[in-house]
Amino acid sequence: MATLGDIGVAATINILSAFAFLSAFAFLRIQPINDRVYFPKWYLKGLRSRSLHTGAFVSKFVNFDFRSYLRFLNWMPAALQMPEPELIEHGGLDSAVYLRIYLIGLKIFIPIACLAFAVIVPVNWTNKTLEHSKLKYSNIDLLSISNVPLGSNRMSSFQRFCSNLGSWAFLRIFFFFRGRAFTSFGFIFWIHLVMAYTFTFWTCYVLKREYEIVAAMRLHFLASEHRQPDQFTVLVRNVPPDPDESVTQLVEHFFLVNHPDHYLTHQVVSNANKPSELVNKKKKMQNWLDFYQLKYSRNPSQKPSMKTGFLGLWGETVDPIDFYTSKIETLKKEISLERDKVMCSSKSVIPAAFVSFKTRWGAAVCAQTQQTRNPTLWLTDWAPEPRDVYWDNLAIPFVSLTIRRLIIFVAYFFLTFFFMIPIAIVQSLANIEGIEKALPFLKPIIEVKVIKSFIQGFLPGITLKIFLIFLPDILMLMSKFEGFISRAALGRRSATRYYIFQFINVFLGSIITGTAFQQLDNFMHQSANDIPKTIGISIPMKATFFITYIMVDGWAGVAGEILRLKPLIVYHLKNFFLVKTENDREEAMDPGAIGFNTGEPQIQLYFLLGLVYAVVAPFLLPFIIVFFALAFVVYRHQVINVYNQEYESAAAFWPDVHGRIITALIVSQLLLMGLLSTKEAAQSTPLLITLPMLTIWFHRFCKGRYEPAFVRYPLQEAMMKDTLERAREPNLNLKSFLQIAYIHPVFKEVEESESDPASEESDQEPVLIPTKRQSRMNTPLPSKHSGSMTSLG
Amino acid sequence: MATLGDIGVAATINILSAFAFLSAFAFLRIQPINDRVYFPKWYLKGLRSRSLHTGAFVSKFVNFDFRSYLRFLNWMPAALQMPEPELIEHGGLDSAVYLRIYLIGLKIFIPIACLAFAVIVPVNWTNKTLEHSKLKYSNIDLLSISNVPLGSNRMSSFQRFCSNLGSWAFLRIFFFFRGRAFTSFGFIFWIHLVMAYTFTFWTCYVLKREYEIVAAMRLHFLASEHRQPDQFTVLVRNVPPDPDESVTQLVEHFFLVNHPDHYLTHQVVSNANKPSELVNKKKKMQNWLDFYQLKYSRNPSQKPSMKTGFLGLWGETVDPIDFYTSKIETLKKEISLERDKVMCSSKSVIPAAFVSFKTRWGAAVCAQTQQTRNPTLWLTDWAPEPRDVYWDNLAIPFVSLTIRRLIIFVAYFFLTFFFMIPIAIVQSLANIEGIEKALPFLKPIIEVKVIKSFIQGFLPGITLKIFLIFLPDILMLMSKFEGFISRAALGRRSATRYYIFQFINVFLGSIITGTAFQQLDNFMHQSANDIPKTIGISIPMKATFFITYIMVDGWAGVAGEILRLKPLIVYHLKNFFLVKTENDREEAMDPGAIGFNTGEPQIQLYFLLGLVYAVVAPFLLPFIIVFFALAFVVYRHQVINVYNQEYESAAAFWPDVHGRIITALIVSQLLLMGLLSTKEAAQSTPLLITLPMLTIWFHRFCKGRYEPAFVRYPLQEAMMKDTLERAREPNLNLKSFLQIAYIHPVFKEVEESESDPASEESDQEPVLIPTKRQSRMNTPLPSKHSGSMTSLG
């Protein structure tokens, strides 16, 4: 158990390292040479093309303007200055809404912290339970609920039995009113209870308001979006096999029959794994060719040579430039051959298609309805953005999907639960007393004050962090295997998995495992009756561990994020060895992205910790608030200057975020219930059990009220956009716009060169379409209502 | 604890009473005078108009054909003979599918019972644990799992701690393989485990097959249905208020704008509570008038007289026939006045409307999509059948609905949990030992053998039954308050509530409360550690109680159902006092209906008992099988001859039925887990915990594969029916067909007399509609696929 002093050491270390990161960043970012590392977003947007500074050659690389060093923290206000609408336009809605999560953290926890420090801390401080107990404790625990005395022992074992059966509510209420509600003991619990209620209501209020705002932002974003192919397109999967017709015929006939007024065109999906592979191979060859050409151009006197064998160690000696040039030529031919094969043969067509409609209304209808009797065939979903499609998963049939889901569930289950073993071992090692007991010969080294503080304050957090580094990739692989069709959905599912993992292993694992190894000896000699009590007591005692975790993972980690050490090094290496033209330099930039699948669960862990400890040990809250504030500024800066989102899901992840904060709230309420029952205040359970019930009701209300905005696309909105567009561009050739929107990236170049005849072909259509449209414009009864709505849009 | 002898007495009583009911029924049903009580369905169908027997006057009332008495059980094969397709046509799909629930019971439990008696019973019999224990037990318990010995005491408290934490799976598996898997103790548990797996797989197999069959039946039923107004109609609720437009204008404009090609007509819903009241009042007056007219016609010499005051005790003396005739006249005028008021004034229009479309396709689209940004406005649902609409609930706004749901949830919670007190008291009284301890002076009376057996075998079941009689009405009131819009949905929700109530109070209540009062003394002196063990042991011991419950509620109750004592008496009373014409006699019949809201939860309780006790105490199974067989025959007879379903939901309740059987399965698996852990076989938990997981996965699979058939209406089906109809009846005037379909029953008569001008008005339309349709028939590209599908339909 860490003392106040240990926490001080850990805080110092972490604050210093965070400060070092921030200073390094402040210094590096104003060097022109690093401009493309710290401001890639502006280059990608075309707003910055070359270093801003003109003048001497050296000043292109190093900043000599010393005044700018004095203003080394001015990126912080700069990051906060950009107003939100501009931010949405600049970085996309996903990023803007993602930043709001941090803001919610601040909105929830700052008032809670103020209230908790005003009320709960003084109450806990005045008790002296821990002094009289035999448990080891630190002075920081005096501020927590551990220091509140147990209830009197007048509770009979019959009452205890009742409190074990959740359903005996009426008996409990009876005993509660008979009980000691207004004694000094009762007074303390009344305060904790009232606080729990207040915190819940405040959190729910903030959540509801945010859900409302984000839903409105999403709808506004969608309504003001430009014409996008995904607005008109639906992805159809599990097209049933037919012996007489090809997939493309089948799709065409099906939609001509069942959506006769709205169907426009479709594109079948081909299995393009082979050409993809060849393209990758060609890219690698091209890299080598570039390398050798550069080498030759720098040193024209020496003609480069290489061997064709393994790793260039043996085999025939050849001129690498000629060798790779010829290789690339053959590959090019092979690729175009494979492409033609895939495009022509019906074997490589998979039973899925992107079906486009004449209107957004038609697409909205098709995406929201069931097509056939068998709900596992002709599955229709909104098509993701073209750049968001995860092509490999489009061909998976329904039954296979269900089985894959089961397999992944089992695999995930084992991953989650067997991961506990190494963490448990590390955590028990990181406990000084544990090490001293296990390896007594290390005692003299460990007892040195600095080392001891270091081990206790730093090690547990950092070992956990290392364990978690490889996890997101595994989880992403799992999601891919499970068969999601868009990258946004992959990210969302990975985030859910990562959150559950963190909840079980980091949160519960740290509480229970840590307890198990620390107090195993106690348990062995206790009756089963006392075990929940011990766990209950250990929750507030784990607060110190979580404080160090927050400092390492939250403070130093976030400060490290802004430094971008890895992209910095990689960029300079590439810049030095490979870059020849401006274009190359563009490619050497690695702006990265927010990384929803790892970032969001990390934030959620802080919500969980904050809500759980708000009543139990409120001295944890300031650490969390510092994290949220720092992270908000840092990530806002990164979104503005660095990150380049690869796709836009229009904040489709918000229901997940909301749901997880609600989960954290309910967990905190249940843990409080367990904790108070260890204080033998089981009579208050009926009052505590209403809290999670109200919270669940609140969740259901929000789900009904706001979630549809994130899942469905209202017909009125679709009709409004359609009408508006028809009025603005009556002669629009939609077919040519949609025909090449959804082709596999491998075919993109080929299609583009071939797109002319296609557009010519479809040029014949406009004669037909506008007439139809005009006739619809003159539809009978153009009511006032429709008129007013049109002008609204 | 009842002994084998007690159960024998109870069985004898119940078999005798069941037999008495059946004999009485067999005798009464062949008396011509009861024909309308026992065969009302045939009269309602018009297949039987008068008593079948001709001849003497007396033989109209009493059956003198003595041969028919010899064949007194021949209704049973007769009930089974009608093939299912005929049954569907005769009694509707709801009834036919309802009967399949009993059939599932037989399909699941007959093979399980055979296997259990072949394997589990012999294994349990050979153990002698109970003989050595200090617990009171009966010889019937020797067949149950209670008689299996506890695991050796080698399980350390550390292991027990692990088994308390659900997440420590890996430690368990470790100890399991280290454990005593192949000792004699282990062998017995392996058998129980294998049986649990076998039973689960068999149940799931049966469930999946049934879901498949029922889904196919529903789809076939819907596809072959005649033209119904609900196929074209969508119910729109929560039309937002608009200061400038009335509701009817608003609805028309909204749908003309957002569904321009499909909207046909709509009907607003009026609040007709006041005329409804007046109509009821008029009916009552009419009854009195009939009564006095009958009195006068039987005794023309004496002119009847009455007083106008309270209960006819004082006031002016008048001629009642004149009095009521004039009263009815004024009421008639008042009613038509009120009707006009409601129909003309815009104040009585509530913000809901039935919107009809030109095609089923249009209605299917509108019902399945979201209309506006705000998901709480313009809510669209499939319109229920006109006779299925629950008119009072159409006007409730969304927020009010959410709050009502919360209120009902809380009310239901209290109802469910506080209902336990009286049951607990009765159950503890029904325990002989309990009574003797509490009231020792009653001992000599109770100790009389017959009384003792009666109390033990009969009383617990019957008291419970009485408690439950008033419950369904309360639950139905709750559902009505909650705001469901169709009577089918009201019934389904009530059924769910009733099931949960039975689960908590009858099932858990009987296990835990009974235990609590019996063994309170034990608990007071036990540590918390031993409490779950005691509960675990009491589950199999409660088997005898449930056997008596099954016999009272299941056997005698079902046999009583076929006797129809209440309708019999009421019919003869009415027949004697009121009936004058054939028409009156028709009205005096009370065919009743299946009563899904009480019947289905009752069956589900038997599924629960059967699945829970299948592994634990299989000697319960034969009792359940007898119930299912008897109930199947009885209810099949009733459906064929008696019941008259008031609405048809096309088996929309099946997902509920399926879900509840799955719930029962999971509960049984969890209880087995708890029970085995009391036998200190906690190491087998990892193997047992996979069972509920697999079951949940199976449920999700079924939900995805079959549930949409019960919730959504596939567009292909709609299009097929539309195309077929258009080909068959190209000149159909749909508007006149739909215009008066959804009017409040109070306005029905008026509308029907006024419908002529309306249909005339809409007669102008057909000139337009067919042209449009013909143009659609000549749509370009009438593919082969569409052709083949059309011919399929």
Proportion of residues in helical segments of chain A = 55-70%
| Main pleated-sheet profile of chain A | 4 strands, antiparallel
| Overall body shape of chain A | globular
Measured by DSSP, the beta-strand proportion of chain A falls in under 5%
Low-confidence parts of chain A lasting 5 or more residues at pLDDT below 50?
51-55, 150-183, 514-529, 750-793
How would you describe this structure in keywords?
homodimer; 793 residues; mainly alpha; four-stranded antiparallel β-sheet; two-stranded antiparallel ribbon; 38 helices; globular; disordered C terminus
What does this structure look like?
The structure is a homodimer of 793-residue chains. Chain A is mainly α. Chain A has 38 helices and six strands. In chain A, the strands form two sheets. The first copy, chain A, has a four-stranded antiparallel sheet. A two-stranded antiparallel ribbon of chain A has the order 3-4. The radius of gyration of chain A is 31 Å and the shape is globular. Residues 51-55, 150-183, 514-529 and 750-793 of chain A have low confidence and may be disordered.
Element layout with pairings:
The structure is a homodimer of 793-residue chains.
Chain A: H1 4-29, H2 35-38, H3 40-44, H4 67-70, H5 75-81, H6 84-91, H7 93-125, H8 129-132, H9 157-164, H10 169-178, H11 184-224, H12 229-232, E1 233-237, H13 247-258, E2 263-270, H14 273-298, E3 306-307, E4 317-318, H15 320-344, E5 349-357, H16 360-368, E6 379-382, H17 398-418, H18 420-429, H19 432-438, H20 443-446, H21 449-469, H22 471-482, H23 487-518, H24 520-524, H25 531-541, H26 543-563, H27 565-577, H28 582-588, H29 596-616, H30 621-641, H31 654-678, H32 685-706, H33 708-711, H34 715-728, H35 734-739, H36 748-763, H37 768-777, H38 784-792
Antiparallel strand pairs in A: 1-5, 1-6, 2-5, 3-4
Helix pairs in contact in A: 1-21, 1-26, 5-30, 6-7, 7-11, 7-29, 7-30, 11-29, 11-31, 11-32, 14-15, 16-34, 17-22, 18-23, 21-26, 22-23, 23-29, 25-31, 26-30, 29-31, 31-32, 34-38
